[in-house]
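Exercise 7.
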Amino acid sequence: AVYINQIRNNNQVHLWAMDRWAVDEDRDGAFLVLPLKNDVETVVGVVGVDTLLSSNPTQFLPHEISFIQNVVRQLSSGFSFLDARHKFSRTLVSLLETIPRKESAVLAASCYVVEPVPHVQSGPKSPDAPGEFVLRHTMSLNPKTGIVETMTGANRETIRRSDTTFRYIEEKAPDNANMDGKSCEPQVDADETKTAIPDNVRDYLFTCLDKREVVQNRAYGTDHLAMCVEDKLGVPIFVIDLDTGKDKTKILKPAQIKSVRILLNKMVMVFGQLLEEVSTDEKKYNSDWEKSLPDDLRFALRFEKMILDDLKRRMSNMDVGALSEIKSYKEPPAIIGTVIQVVMLLLGICAEEELQEWSNIKTHLNSELLKKLAAFDPLGKDTKVDIHKANDRLKGLTATEVKKGGSMPTYLLYQWIIDVISIIRVGEATR
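Solution. The predicted structure, written as tokens, is:
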């Protein structure tokens, strides 16, 4: 800490806002500077306080200095948490974008941060009672735009277990309802004028949190699936709420739930790596390409790469025989043809003007193609891919359409395309 009791006569102090001197030419004041430190006592910033604008400028009294020191100490203790939350926010965006990409039945997704509440009326009544929590709505995937929106200000909803108020609505719910507590309304039957819907229809979020298990529920006219995300110590950190819409046939099956859980587990791994870095103040790079990236994008890309690597392991079971069906087509179905064209474009095997000749394309459906798929690095220095051309050819093609209209190899190739495009898109933000 640095304390200067007379600023005006000290030539080591320079005020950038010179109008502060204009209040009174004869006025003087004191200046106190305190360091902001992280968990490992590394200085990450400073806090400066002066008395120049005080109506009775004076020196800091001992109890005032002690008070300011305590405030700065509290700021320092929260710095690591805020730093980790900022760095991890981009990874959460990647997660919410990836889930519908892998499981197209998911129309919307929301992320709630779990925060403990030690002293509330609905909290523990005995030492053996479980801890109480609130859920803070931090992010949502907009089903209409496909964009992940960060909840801030008035839009950042807080859900408490004790919330039991009723809301009355007269309009029908939108087709693509989500869990944004304001814009999403329940469906009203034609012969009803009003419907009373309790806010606690979202008790399934707390049921998921309490039992630490997957909970399915119908709320606001759509089917929802809640999953709790825990850290390595079993402490809940997030609740993910997936909206599969009004069609009950779209409810996620066990295999699909397992697929989502794998994504969440990968996110927890990345989150643990981030917390370890923050707590030790030592950066650990998994690859050379990470060294030039800001931390938020570094962890987001690490998560995306883990997903692609997992897909590559699944694709390693493919052999030339898996491509033989595709190769046997004289003219392939439109969906299969589109997927193969984009693969050739991303790998640089065929120029764009050659993509219309199927007889030329299918000569490349061989073991060499499988090797190139496995070796392809979207973040490699020599990788030059125009993802906009790839997106133009896909023309909004969805995983569901590919799964229905193509073979399993085609579906895996489509997933490879989407994962590669996602990684390159995130990586472009660093250039």
